[in-house]
Amino acid sequence: MAKTYQAPYYVRVANLLTTTLLRAGLPIRGPYIFFGKYRIYLLMVRGRKSGQMRRVPVALLERNGKRYVASPFGRVNWALNLRAAGEARLSRGRKEETVVARELPSAEAALVMREEVKDGHPFAHTFGVTADSSLEEFERAVIGHSLFELENK
Per its UniProt record, what Pfam families does this chain match (predicted)? Predict the structure, then answer.
């Protein structure tokens, strides 16, 4: 079984604050100044063991008319839940939508993440690659970091 990880403490505290603001209906761009171009959504996904709805704020990546969500801190619970459920709900402010999630194979995920890192993704350092890294390095990096394409249901 793959090892699961946890986001650092400061990220979990920021997630708690961000979740509270999103549930109150405040559309926010990001908890950090350098995170501004990414829209923050509240991802609600059914737990793979408990069956209860779990909530976590995520930054959606938008590229070529498609939307993606990445797990910068490795195989964390929300990513494992999304993989198992295959669908989730996204909310932002008062707007909510149901999406189908498809985990990208490593070759496809590497291409998307390479473009994101070149554009200055704020969590690029967690993937262990730089804008100058080769495609093979990106393929190795995304093995431990799930990347999902989200489509409207």
Answer: F420H2_quin_red
- Domain CATH for 86: 2.30.110.10
Number of domains in the chain: 1
Full residue range of the structural domain in which residue 110 is found:
9-152
- DSSP states along 35-73: GTTSEEEEEEEE-TTT--EEEEEEEEEEETTEEEEE-TT
Domain assignment present for 46: yes
- What angle do the packed helices 135-142 and 106-118 form, to 10 degrees? 110
The Cα 21–Cα 28 span in angstroms is 8
Is 13 part of any domain? yes
Structure tokens, 70? 């990445």
